[in-house]
Design a protein that fits this description.
Low-confidence stretches: 1-30
CATH superfamily: MFS general substrate transporter like domains
CATH class: Mainly Alpha
Shape: globular
Strand content: under 5%
Structural class: mainly alpha
CATH topology: Growth Hormone, Chain: A
Distance between the termini: 7 Å
Length: about 450
């Protein structure tokens, strides 16, 4: 495939990539990147509940919508993830064009309205498809992409760590709030609890949206030189989304995202039903329902995963880290099928699953910046992020349908997910690793056609 050099030229920075331009940037902007990182982490903590808390509401939904098959309720989560991901490439282009703040404010309004209106007025699953699935999903995707892109732009020198800490906020929220949300549901019902938490989280995200901003064009940290660390190779070219779509490495990253999303999303959306199928749903831990306790433990592991593997990838390389962590998830997902009737193993194995799964957007967003540059990272990672949406139909609704064919057992979907993780590990090591180095080599000699 050939991309003319003329197409690349407008994307080249006005300064030499990898060379510091801080001398031309006010000192306040230089220190600002740590404020941006902290604000982004706070947003992610608040944002996480829209995705991770769905399973806490499903028992109340089943009680209210009597006679509705569980697969129809699980479809809410699939639609949520679909709209969290598929419209995001358009949002990415808008973020790169008009800036982060306007899109963040729009996203905060969407997530607030979605949960508040759903909690207060929904009288059918169809209404939840629109309010929780479409509106809340769209707002969540816009905000998530904006914050991840901001971290990558501000930290080209510590891309894995910054993406890991930012994504850790998303996992951290899932560790902090499942028990409070579960207690709120128990006290006032799932609908009112959704409305209350939707209002609190939405307002806080709106306030934080007024803080975040992209760095000045051409900005780089003082003394930073691209590719100084040999384990992580980074392109000196910035590819537009059109150019990225013509590159085979984009489709490889997309497919890896799809494969590795299956097991984690299936667990996120169906944890209450999975506990039922494993015959542990009535168990409690320290007086808390086992699902709420496991969701908290999963969130802690999720948080640790993003920091641990993001930092490791800065040192060991993205593809090497992917290989190790994808295999860890494959093994832990297989063991889920072996713990029927054992509540102790339930709260041990599932956090290990999320220790493997949590890194997914940390490593893939950092790799997107490495291969395709940071200037258009919102649009480029937004396209790769839709791989999660492609996995959503199988992970939510599809897994529930397969489980119903096996008397409610999720063993078959988990076997499929474990196999997909092994394939993803092989692709990361044997395909992505050599392709990534060829891509970066082209950037070292930009006169060569792509």
């Amino acid at each position: 495939m050939t991309v003319a050099l003329a197409e690349q030229t407008p994307q080249m920075e006005s300064v030499q990539p990898g060379r510091s331009t801080e001398a031309a940037v006010p000192a306040a902007e230089t220190g600002n990147r740590w404020i941006q990182l902290i604000a982004g982490i706070a947003v992610m903590v608040l944002l996480s509940n829209y995705q991770y808390s769905f399973t806490l509401f499903t028992p109340g939904m089943r009680d209210q919508f009597v006679g509705t098959p569980y697969s129809s309720i699980a479809l809410i989560f699939s639609i949520f993830v679909l709209f969290e991901t598929w419209p995001v490439p358009i949002a990415g282009v808008l973020i790169d064009t008009f800036g982060i703040r306007r899109l963040m404010i729009a996203g905060s309004i969407l997530v607030s309205l979605g949960w508040i209106v759903a909690g207060m007025t929904a009288t059918s699953v169809m209404q939840l498809y629109l309010l929780y699935g479409v509106i809340t999903g769209l707002g969540t995707g816009i905000i998530y992409l904006a914050i991840v892109a901001n971290a990558i732009k501000w930290f080209p020198d510590r891309r894995g760590l910054a993406a890991g800490l930012t994504a850790a906020g998303f996992g951290g929220g899932s560790a902090l709030t499942p028990i409070p949300i579960s207690l709120t549901i128990h006290a006032i019902g799932w609908g009112h609890a959704m409305a209350v938490w939707g209002a609190i989280q939405g307002f806080a995200i709106f306030a934080l949206a007024l803080v975040v901003t992209f760095p000045p064009q051409g900005w780089a940290p003082a003394g930073w030189v691209a590719n100084a660390a040999k384990a992580v190779v980074q392109s000196k070219l910035d590819y537009s989304w059109k150019q990225t779509l013509r590159m085979p490495e984009f489709y490889l990253l997309y497919f890896i995202h799809f494969l590795i999303s299956l097991g984690g999303l299936m667990t996120l959306g169906n944890l209450s039903e999975i506990a039922r199928s494993l015959q542990v749903d009535k168990a409690t831990v320290f007086g808390v329902s086992i699902v709420a306790f496991a969701a908290t433990a999963n969130g802690l592991a999720n948080t640790a995963s993003r920091i641990l593997w993001g930092t490791a990838s800065d040192r060991a390389g993205r593809e090497n880290t992917m290989t190790i962590v994808f295999l860890l998830e494959a093994v832990s997902i297989f063991f889920v099928t072996q713990i029927t009737g054992n509540p102790i193993l339930f709260v041990i194995i599932f956090p290990i699953v999320f220790l493997g799964y949590g890194q997914i957007n940390t490593l893939l967003s950092a790799t997107t910046g490495d291969l395709f540059g940071t200037r258009n990272v919102s649009a480029n990672f937004g396209m790769i992020y839709t791989g999660k949406g492609a996995a959503a139909m199988f992970s939510g609704w599809g897994a529930a349908v397969i489980a119903s064919a096996f008397a409610g057992s999720f063993a078959a979907p988990y076997y499929i997910a474990a196999g997909c993780d092994v394939i993803a590990a092989a692709l990361a090591f044997f395909a992505l690793k050599p392709i990534a180095r060829r891509t970066v080599a082209r950037g070292e000699n930009p006169s060569r056609p792509i």
